[in-house]
């Protein structure tokens, strides 16, 4: 395991993985509709965060399988938030170039997960096949869903459309629990979006679940998994999925990784006496 600014290298069995931070995106109290602003700011204060918003990490993961380079999500890029956009430079520091990426596995089509994969001129990873859940594709390409989205939701549909269009000639739609690469299985985790999914990485009896957006703010949602975010398409299903995954990860002592977990965004889940959970973070052994 090695660490440097925004980059964390580790292994799952004989496979090499690299977590790369694209930066962070500020989340205000209104992102969490089931709690009030006082609860939100009290949580920030207890965590030692002296800002009005929570700087939520935005991560992507590089998977090296026998020299073949694959990417899980692509961050949001500067177009999503000015505090994002570090993926490309940190890929280079990690020793990778965009044209090496053979597969772009997308957990869901929210802008902070696919914004870094597109530019005005098209695909950033021009040689990559995009892998996406069919249910995710169907939701974001449905004209009726887009019409219902309103002004606040419209940018999400436009971002999804841009990503799909950029990779339309090299797009693979999958459904259900599916092996997508040797040692990589897509796991449906619906609720946050209809086709939200994670990827189970397996090698030499070692497993890691990259669970994407099961948790957005560790200080809140590990303590109370019933807290939802405004971006959840189906909040109750998101809660049910979160509870199921947390229980499975703790019971099976499964190592997990997430797109909004604190650096290095990899660790194991532990129950705490209040009925919630905590993350025992990999390498630096901090508790979130």
Radius of gyration: 18 Å
The beta-strand count equals 17
By DSSP (H or I, 4+ residues per run), the number of helices equals 8
Structural class: alpha+beta
Poorly predicted ranges: 284-288
Sheet with most strands: 8 strands, mixed
Shape: globular
Distance between the termini: 20 Å
The helix content is 25-40%
Order of helices and strands: EEEHEEHEHEEEHHHEEEEEHHEEE
Strand arrangement, major sheet = 1-2-3-4-5-6-9-10
Strand percentage = 25-35%
Provide the residue-averaged pLDDT: 95
3D architecture notes:
By secondary structure, this protein is of the alpha+beta class. The protein contains 8 helices and 17 strands. The strands form 3 sheets. Strands 1-2-3-4-5-6-9-10 form an 8-stranded mixed sheet. The model is unreliable at 284-288 (pLDDT under 50).
